[in-house]
């Protein structure tokens, strides 16, 4: 299998291209993407995983959200996707739009990037209720955060 969005990060300081990765504190976060064989598109699968790379220890950690039976809120995850926009703002990772393997999306999700000490404090994805005029469904586009806004450059 080939991982098409995550590229190897070398601990000697050299970095290969890692699209849709965002730095927060001493870590880099990578959400989703697709995996499979590019020569056989039927085997491609869009993912909704979230990985953290800690620069100091050169360690990858897969984030999971709480699915405890004690939790009163059900576990909700964004649909798997690739070619989405991602940004960090207000201690949270925000993802917008992308492609789920069948159609282009224009939904928005966020997850806090601060970890808690207990299972109940595990981060939870939340779908964002958007208002105003939405950008069209899009994929493979950059986003940028300035002041209190996220700008989507779609063409």
Cα Rg: 16 Å
User: Can you summarize the main beta sheet?
Assistant: 5 strands, antiparallel
Approximately how much beta-strand content do the residues carry? Answer: 35-45%
Order of helices and strands: EEEEEEEEEEE
- Helical fraction equals under 10%
Question: What report would you give on this structure?
Answer:
With 155 residues, this protein is mainly beta. It is built from no helices and 11 strands. It has strands spanning 2-3, 21-24, 27-36, 45-54, 59-63, 85-89, 92-99, 104-112, 126-127, 143-146, 149-152. The protein is globular and about 35 Å long.
In short:
By secondary structure, this protein is mostly beta strands.
Quick tags:
155 residues; mainly beta; 4-stranded antiparallel sheet; globular; disordered N terminus
């Amino acid at each position: 299998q080939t991982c098409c969005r995550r590229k190897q990060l070398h601990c000697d300081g050299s970095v290969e291209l890692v699209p849709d990765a965002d730095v927060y504190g001493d870590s880099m976060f990578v959400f989703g993407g697709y995996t499979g064989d590019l020569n056989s598109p039927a085997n491609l699968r869009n993912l909704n995983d979230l990985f953290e790379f800690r620069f100091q220890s050169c360690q990858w950690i897969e984030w999971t959200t709480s699915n405890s039976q004690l939790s009163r809120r059900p576990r909700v995850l964004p649909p798997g996707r690739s070619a989405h926009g991602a940004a960090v703002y207000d201690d949270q990772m925000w993802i917008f739009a992308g492609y789920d393997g069948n159609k282009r999306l224009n939904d928005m999700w966020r997850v806090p990037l601060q970890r808690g000490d207990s299972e109940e404090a595990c981060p939870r994805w939340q779908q964002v209720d958007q208002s105003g005029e939405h950008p069209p469904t899009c994929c493979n586009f950059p986003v940028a955060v300035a002041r209190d806004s996220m700008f989507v450059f779609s063409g």
